[in-house]
Specification:
Layout (H helix, E strand, L loop, with lengths): L1 E9 L2 E10 L5 E5 L6 H8 L7 E5 L9 H7 E4 L11 H10 L7 H7 L15 H13 L5 E5 L7 H16 L3 E5 L3 H7 L2 E6 L2 E6 L1 H7 L4 E7 L5 H5 L4 E7 L2 E6 L3 H11 L4 E8 L2 H9 L9
Parallel strand pairs: 3-7, 3-8, 5-6, 6-7
Antiparallel strand pairs: 1-2, 1-4, 8-9, 10-12, 10-13, 11-12
Helix pairs in contact: 8-11
This protein binds adenosine-5'-triphosphate.
Amino acid sequence: MRVDGLLKRYGEKVAVRDVSFEVGEGEVFGILGPNGAGKTTTVESIAGLRVGDGGAIRVLGIDPWADRPALTRVLGVQLQESRLQPKITVDEALTLWSSFYDDPVPWRGLVDRLGLGAQGGTRFADLSGGQQQRLSIALALVGRPRVAILDELSTGLDPQARRQVWEIVRELRADGVTVLLVTHSMEEAQQLCDRIAIIDGGRIRALDTPEGLIRGATAATVTTFTASAAVDLEDLRAAAGVSSVRADAGRIVVEGADGAALAVLDRLRQQRVTPSGLRIVDGSLDTAYLDLTSTTSEEQPA
Ligand SMILES: Nc1ncnc2c1ncn2[C@@H]1O[C@H](COP(=O)(O)OP(=O)(O)OP(=O)(O)O)[C@@H](O)[C@H]1O
């Protein structure tokens, strides 16, 4: 799948500009970003549900804006807040969806795995929010898609259902299905995605593996300790690679690049302060994400 210079406007507002990326077959590609960043616009353009004002998209060689019928044969889409006809039951919806495809999956197994086995006769309107979500995932996958777009896959799911859908995504990848995953969950992104694009203000701010994003963040490591005596925090802030220093519940917390911890220990030695309960841990995707989005989220495209 290839997205080249995607541009999408809603009236005067530019929702997405100059978004380009490529996703390999069998890759799980995550799209992260704050509310209103342009994630849904991007994936709905890929699904052919919105037509861009510029750029080009190809999904397995198909142009989604020109040939949606060809695309729907290979694409499965689970959209944010999908709505079905209120009276359709779970079984009816799956039977109907299956009839659209040449080689659908035997959907009973899928429904059981998603914990909807007992809801076969329940109408869409009578399902809980999480059950509706599970059904929309089942419908996205029933056609044995080669590309799956999952927008907020696990929003509203209980922890068990969440693990179950993660397992299903891993199996899709193992079967060579390309997965585009929009999520607000850093844990989900870290667990599932081979690569992640962080979108903010309609542009891609970073694109890398989860590990690469963490390594590149200003808070790649977090060092915490209790000090034996008063610490000159300004002096620590000046140490090489340090991005922030704060006192938190009696402990000093230092965030910084890879080498920051050593530089801080050196400064402490010079200050004749002994750190106790010293912990140096890797930064998380959360810190990398906040790093990449906090300074730009106020910025509006000109
Ligand atoms: N149909 C529309 N008409 C007008 N503006 C729209 C429309 N759809 C989206 N927008 C605007 O485009 C921008 C991008 O919206 P989009 O839904 O793509 O964001 P998102 O990243 O998916 O956000 P969220 O995390 O809240 O789902 C927002 O400013 C939104 O208000």
